[in-house]
Specification:
Mean pLDDT: 91
Oligomer: single chain
Number of domains: 1
Structural class: alpha+beta
Number of strands: 8
Helix content: 25-40%
Low-confidence stretches: none
Radius of gyration: 17 Å
Order of helices and strands: HHEEEEEEHEHEH
Strand order of the largest sheet: 1-2-3-5-6-8
Amino acid sequence: MTIKDLANLISKKNSLDTEISKIIGRPAEKGHVGEYIASQIFDIELSDSATNKGSDGYFRTGNLSNKQVNVKFYGKREGILDVNTTTSPPEYYLVLTGPLSSAGSSKGTSRPWIIESVFLFEHEKLIEILQKKGIQIGIPTSVSKDNWERAELYPHNTNNSMILTEDQKDVLSLFNKNQ
């Protein structure tokens, strides 16, 4: 691989990013793409501003209707969650993740944009659990495996806060193609 090869690949990536931006209406950054995907699958009304404090939007329908949500899209599930410590935190975190991985050096690896799992954390309950365990809360926050398991919506629904339809599962499976 040469620097010219890299320049050609970046040019192709820029063209793809332009096409993605046309679909999502925002720059083709991972966070914006995750928010768009979540909005379409989970019927979330995104805030007009991508820099809205505390949350990215709110659920429009279902038993979480009108609840504020902050969407996270992580290339790997490393047990880390960026928890909002401001005065206006979201009511929920909806986390789209790639494969389970241990935190460590990323040298020689990649982070494809795939969704293997989806999790839903209720902010207040999560904060209470973390404080009881004496875990420092912020960006990033270490969240234990048992908390991730209780929050899982997809592929194994262990979270009673939301039950996914077959259509939602089918659409999520489209983003689990590691090519």
